[in-house]
Amino acid sequence: xxxxxxxxxxxxxxxxLLAEYGEAFPDVPAEAWEPYRALYPELxxxxxxxxxxxxxxxxxAGVTVLVDTGxxxxxxxxxxxxxxxxxxxxxRTLGVDRDEIxxxxxxxxxxxxxxxxxxxxxSVFFPRARYVVHGxxxxxxxxxxxxxxxxxxxxPLLDRFEQVDGEVEIAPGVTAFAAPxxxxxxxxLRVASEGANAVLLADVAVHPALLEEPDWVYVSDSDPAQxxxxxxxxxxxxxxxxxxxxxxxxxxxxxxxVLTRDGRVVWEExx
Length: 271
Ligand SMILES: [Zn+2]
Fold this sequence. Notes:
It is a single chain. By secondary structure, the chain is α+β, with helices and mostly antiparallel strands. The chain has a single domain, classed as Ribonuclease Z/Hydroxyacylglutathione hydrolase-like (Metallo-beta-lactamase, Chain A), CATH 3.60.15. The chain has 7 helices and 16 strands. The radius of gyration is 17 Å and the shape is globular. The relative contact order is 0.16. Zinc ion binds next to loops.
């Protein structure tokens, strides 16, 4: 789709079973998920969280940005994968060569967001790209140097990362901003062009249910109270506003809008 004159395209990489909902959100009773099972069937497989992992390509004024790099070549992540390693083919389908990526923007350094930073040998996968990431994310990942995804997808880039520490324009009309709570230095993106707006949430609300229940605690958030606070502060900008809301873990393209429907706050894909 386009946001003004900026292109926003999903780049699927993987789909799999992450965990049972009861493990990922231990404080949330099973029955509380039922309305979301009906709203977002793609995200449920029995009691398990059926998780898509998509990246986004943003093209603004001749600058091509890849937002996050997915789970990567299969085998790195110990999860129940259905499909993995699709990003290179997905880029090819979009007619984009990896030489054409000008900026790799990493919202944070969890394993499902860094997989194609490098190839299986640890060589940089996007040879021309600036790799932009928050310094706190780099510091935190470096403190987990023994973890396989850090060893393969983060450590080889330590000299190359362009470390930022707050709001920064990474391409004309594409601005990264601090969205703390999910991971140290976690960032999201605002896209603004010709009066049109989009927000790429990254993992501010990893499940669309969190747009309605911002205080639900996800076990992988490094600072759950801060994560809830970030959701609460962003929601007025998202709900029933003329703004596109994208998240790589949401159904379909992950590109949609947040609306009030029958008294519920729901995310709906834009088709
Ligand atoms: Zn994620």
